[in-house]
Structure formats: C-alpha cells, structure tokens
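Quick log. Single chain, no ligands specified.
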Amino acid sequence: QVQLVESGGGLVQAGGSLRLSCAASGRTFSSYAMGWFRQAPGKEREFVAASSWNGGYTAYADSVKGRFTISRDNAKNTVYLQMNSLKPEDTAVYYCAAEAYGLGSKVRAGYDYWGQGTQVTVSS
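-> predicted structure:
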C-alpha cells in the first residue's frame, strides 16, 4: 500500500513557476514509477509527466515539454514537478500517482495509487 500526498499548488501569474511535491509512504517507494496527471474543470484527467523507478526514464506530455521537469528523491520518498513558464491553460488539479510496474506509463490506467490532488491556478 502506498499513500500519496501532494503539496505546492497555488495561484501564480502567467509566466511564473511552481514546484509541486508528492510525499509517499511505504518502504517500497523506490520501486515504483511515479507520474503526474492533471484535470481541468469539465475535462478528462490527462497525463503530464512520468519517471521510472530510478529516474532513468522520464516522459512528458507535448503541452508541457520544455517547461515542466519531473524528478524524484528516493531517499525522501518524494517526487517533484517543477513547472516553469506557466500558462493559464495549465490551470488544473494536479495529481501524483504510483505505478507498481516501475517503468513510467503515460496511461492513467497503468497507475495503482493516487493522491488527492493539489490545485494550480494560473492567472493571465
């Protein structure tokens, strides 16, 4: 069982930056791939970024490539999402998720555990 708690969301102006954190419980965190997804009002939850169990593989949605960076610190059981050059269309609830297979899927159904989400609002 893995429990995930996101933090770091908030209100920021367009062009600004935020860093989201996701703290995980459980001794097996380092074996899980981690992903970030987001859901805007009235829209489906969509993939944002993923990291394999050791950070050796990362993947990004085209809409955030070059602006967002996923990283992880297995010693702290934490995964991060650094978000730069934020745009109003990045406004959403951001969720972190853990994937037992370890490789870092872009598919929502590939993840086994989910956090409760943190709101990110980007004003124009």
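Residues 71 and 80 are 5 Å apart (CA to CA).
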